[in-house]
Amino acid sequence: MSRTRSVTSSVLGVDRRTVLAATAAVSVSAGVGYALRPTDSQAAAATVPAGSPAPAREAAAVPAGPAAPLAPYTKGTTLASVAAPRAGSGYRRLGSAGGWQRVVRSDLAAPKSGRAGRRTTLAAFVQLTDLHLIDSQHPLRLEYLRAASEISWRPHEALTVQGAVSLVERVNSLRAAPVTGAPLDFVVTTGDNTDNNAHTELDWYLTVMSGGRIAPNSGDPRHYEGVQNSGIPLYWQPDATSRDAYKQRGFPHLDGFLAAAIREVNSPGLTLPWYSTVGNHDAMPLGCYAHGDSWLAEFAVGGRKLMELTAAEATRLQQSISQDKDPRGTVIRDLLKSKTRAMRTVTPDERRAPYTAAEHVRAHLDPAYKGAGPVGHGYTAGNLAAGTQYYTFPVAENVIGISLDTTDPGGHYNGSIGTAQLKWLDATLRAHKDAYAIVFSHHTSESMSNTRPDPARPRERRHTGAELTALLGRHRNVVAWVNGHIHRNDITPHRGTAGTFWEISTASHVEFPQLARVIELVDNKDGTLSLHTTLVESAAPHRTDFTDLSQTGLAALYRELSANARFDGARLSGEAKDRNTELVLKKR
Q1: Do 85 and 587 meet the contact criterion of CB atoms below 8 Å apart?
Q2: 114, 65 contact by CB (below 8 A)
Q3: H or E element, residue 61
Q4: Contact between 519 and 439 (Cβ < 8 Å)
């Protein structure tokens, strides 16, 4: 497949990169403390030794804004408007609704009057999480669990690339941080960037973020081969006139939908530097099976695909996965072997093979995916040599970012952290005790409950979210822990033995309401700090037109279809206190 690599250039984009080049926004240490050499990244001009603050940030002197959000900078955010289903039953079209107000939270410190007139900006960035770019024709996908539970399959899965590109377009369109008007420093993903640990998905993700052309298709280059043209009424068959389970609820008949879904897409790439964090779906096939047995790779690239199970069979497999009884995939391997005659023929494709941790890091280091930089997007040659996927990077003057690897290579979708990484984190926070620290991971504190040994380090102890939370609370410089995984907006205050911090969990971009988050760290100049969080949607219009199967039209349809899938959108969007917020905490 041929494609071109490009990075959209704009006046804003050039200015941002100039600012970030001046601040030397590069990783300061990799996995086990490897120092970095300078790279040719526009956003990485020099190595910053561990323990040193980042150079001065131009945006630090942004004038204090008024108490109300800065109107020019709220456009495109959920402060201005949100997509919402119209009244009715069955399939509901989307329209625009009023924006979500900002909620001030005083769980950790009391807000003081007049702070909006005093504050200065320390950092401003965008968090993307759980993009779940899906190769929807992959032979290892578990669509057949739909027989046991409707939420095991999404009718919009063929459109994840179009949706992600539209999200990139939205981030590029943001003029500045919505509360302070400060320039945005960078974008960070917090894992599950891919869905099935497949090389196809990894290429799509890196191209979406860096810029270029993507054919979101695998197998037969001319035709879609998957459950949505199978004729099985369990799934939405958009091109067929038959009455499947979804059309009975009002889902539309769309001639040409599948041909449009696999048509080439163009991504402008992010105009901001971006960093990548690993999630369980990036680390393991299906997000839960440990690498090891060759059958996973053989089946992934082969020409047979199971598309249907009985409800009883699907329930048994679903329970095996959810109850963490099958970390190496023995149950699904035996099931697939027993269902050979029931499988359908598809076109084999070597590009669907699962990728290893080393291949994940190596792909990020590929110059073809450099985009706005930095080279490696946080990962370094040191990570590759040490077999790690965690690192630090300077965000701004006196602010560092720390990206963790909370996936458990031993299997299962919940996470944990190894002793070596935990000690590295403790040492890193001590070395940067004079800088504020923002920690990034995929898993939340509550979802780090899987302490199965890492096959590569069988004697190393694994640690839970409670242990990680306790460690972060022993460091007064930690202000935030930003993560995803639970596909839900949720913001939790934490009080430690030495300091306090906010845990900010953001909803996925694969389930409605498909949100990302802007986070601004400010000094209120009154003994407190504030973290302002503002949710953003993709650039696609809220209203859809069923005749518009362009790249933009499909991105809009991606959102509307997700709103009509049987996921609890209201629960996933969170309460008002978990969405647009000001999170106050005491200054260290």
Answers
A1: no
A2: no
A3: none
A4: no
Helices (H), 304-391: 311-322, 330-338, 357-365, 381-386
Q: pTM, whole model, 2 decimals?
A: 0.89
Going by DSSP bridges, is the β-strand pair 120-128/186-189 parallel, antiparallel, or unpaired?
Answer: parallel
H or E element at residue 205: helix 199-210
The answer to whether 26 touches 52, Cβ cutoff 8 Å, is: no
* DSSP state string for 119-157: -EEEEEEEEE----B--TT-TT--GGGGGT-GGGS-TTG
Cα 218 to Cα 134, 140, 363, 377, distances in angstroms: 11, 13, 19, 26
Burial 356-381 (b: 16+ CB within 10 A, else e): ebeebbbbbbeeebbbbbbbbbbbbb
Say how far apart CA 81 and CA 513 lie, in whole Å. 12
* Structural contact between residues 454 and 463, judged by C-beta atoms closer than 8 angstroms: no
CA angle 414, 416, 417 (to 5 degrees): 155
Classified as helix, coil or strand, 532 is strand
Distances (CA, A) of 159 to 135, 156, 180, 541: 10, 6, 34, 15
- What letter would DSSP give residue 60? G
E-assigned strands of 484-539? 490-495, 500-505, 516-523, 528-536
Torsion over CA: 406, 30, 55, 129 (sign): negative
Q: What is the pLDDT of residues 39-96, one digit of tens each?
A: 222 222 223 333 333 333 433 333 333 344 566 789 889 999 999 999 888 999 999 9
- Cα–Cα nearest to 253, from 242, 243, 238: 238
Q: Measured in whole angstroms, how far is the alpha carbon of residue 335 from the centre of its chain?
A: 31
With 0-12 / 13-18 / 19 or more C-beta atoms within 10 angstroms meaning exposed / middle / buried, residue 72 is exposed
Task: Confirm if 355 and 361 have CB atoms less than 8 A apart.
Answer: no
- CA neighbor of 198 nearest in space, from 329, 305, 355, 348: 355
Phi, psi of 467 (to 5 degrees): -70, -40
Q: Give me the residues paired with residue 34 across strands.
A: 30
Burial classification of residue 133, based on how many CB atoms lie within 10 Å of its CB (0-12 exposed, 13-18 middle, 19 or more buried) = buried
Give the C-alpha separation, 555 to 562, whole Å: 11
* Closest to 491 (Cα-Cα) out of 527, 445, 457: 445
Using an 8 Å Cβ cutoff, are 274 and 375 in contact?
no
The partner residues of 396 in beta bridges, in order of sequence, read: 399
The full length of the chain comes to: 588
3-state secondary structure of 400: strand
Residue 4 has pLDDT above 60, yes or no: no
- 294 contact partners, CB below 8 Å, separation of at least 6: none
Q: Which two tokens stand for residue 294?
A: 């060759």
Q: Cβ of 213: how many Cβ atoms within 10 Å?
A: 15
Q: Is it the case that residue 256 has pLDDT exceeding 70?
A: yes
Look at residues 282, 140, 153, 267 and name the one whose alpha carbon lies nearest to residue 555: 267
DSSP letter (8 states) at residue 58: G
Q: What is the pLDDT of residues 344-380, one digit of tens each?
A: 999 999 999 999 999 999 999 999 999 999 999 999 9
**Contact status, residue 213 vs residue 129, Cβ threshold 8 Å:** no
